[in-house]
C-alpha cells in the first residue's frame, strides 16, 4: 500500500481536481484505491459521487481511530457503478475498487496549528485498516495546519499542486520547506513525490515563464505531464463524473494525461501498479 497526500498551502489551485483525476486513472487501471477526504469542505466526496449511508465520516473515525473499523465505514464512489455499467459489455472485466472515507466539517476540530504528536497519529491509526488498497490518496485542505500535517504523518509521499503563477510558485517553495522540517521532526521516510502544474494555459507567456521558473527551482520534482486548463472540468465535476467516463475528445485527452501522471507518480516504488497504468498509457 502506498499513501500519497495531495497538498498545497494555497486554496483553489486544484488539489481536489488532481486527487479525483488520479483516482479516475487508478480506477481505469484496476488499482484498488481509497480516497481520504480530509478537507472539511468535503469537495472530493461530492466529486466522487458518494451516497453516504450510516457509515462514520472521516472526522468521526479520527475521533476514535482504534475503533474506526475503516473497512465498514468507507463508501464506494458512484463512479464504480458507472464504470461497471460501461464495462459490462467487456467480458470478464471486474468493477474495480474505488472507496471514499467521506469528508465532513467535523474534521475541522483538528485543523489547528498546534496539533500534538498524539493527534498527528490519528490518520495513520485509521489507515491501519486500509491493507486491501494498493493506493491511498489523501485530499488535504488548503493550509499547513493540523489536518495536512496529520496527512503527511500517515503518508509515504506528498504531491504538491501549483498553478503557474507567482503566488502559487512562492507558496509551493514555502510548502517544500515545511515538508523538509516536518520530515526532520516527525517523518524521516516521507518524501516529496513531486509537484503537479495545474491549469496551464499553453498560449500564456506568463505561464510559460513560470513553468520555466518552476523547472529551475524544483528540477525533477516538477512532474510531467502538466495539466492544462480544461474548459469542461467544472461541468464534469458538477455531474460527479470521472474524467475517464466523460464523452468527447478533450476528456479523453485529459484522462490520458492523468494516466501518465499516475504512472510517473507511482514509478519509483510501486512497480506492479505503475506497470498497469503504463499499459493503459501505451494502449
Ligand atoms: N485543470 C483545470 N481546468 C479547469 N478548471 C480547473 C482545473 N483544475 C481545477 N479547476 C477548477 O478550479 C476550481 C478549484 O479547483 P479545486 O477545487 O480542485 O482546488 P482545490 O485546491 O482543491 O481547492 P480548495 O483549496 O478550496 O480545496 C474548481 O472549480 C475546479 O473545477
Ligand atoms: Mg479541495
Description:
The protein has helices at residues 15-29, 43-47, 58-63, 70-73, 78-87, 117-120, 122-126, 146-154, 166-185, 205-218, 233-238, 249-266, 271-282; strands spanning 2-7, 33-37, 75-76, 98-101, 135-139, 157-162, 191-197. The chain has 283 residues and is α/β, with parallel strands linked by helices. The protein has a single domain (2-281), classed as Rossmann fold, CATH 3.40.50.300. A 7-stranded mixed sheet has the order 3-4-2-5-1-6-7, sandwiched between helices. Helix 9 links the parallel strand 6 (157-162) and strand 7. Helix 1 crosses helix 12 (249-266). The longest helix is centred in the middle third of the chain and has 20 residues, at 166-185. The chain is globular and about 50 Å long. Residues 11-17, 39, 43, 142, 198-199, 227, 229-230, 233-234, 237 line the site of adenosine-5'-triphosphate (ATP). Magnesium ion (MG) is lined by residues 15-16, 39, 43, 139.
Layout of strands and helices, then pairs:
Blueprint: E1 2-7, H1 15-29, E2 33-37, H2 43-47, H3 58-63, H4 70-73, E3 75-76, H5 78-87, E4 98-101, H6 117-120, H7 122-126, E5 135-139, H8 146-154, E6 157-162, H9 166-185, E7 191-197, H10 205-218, H11 233-238, H12 249-266, H13 271-282
Parallel strand pairs: 1-5, 1-6, 2-4, 2-5, 6-7
Antiparallel strand pairs: 3-4
The structure holds adenosine-5'-triphosphate and magnesium ion (MG).
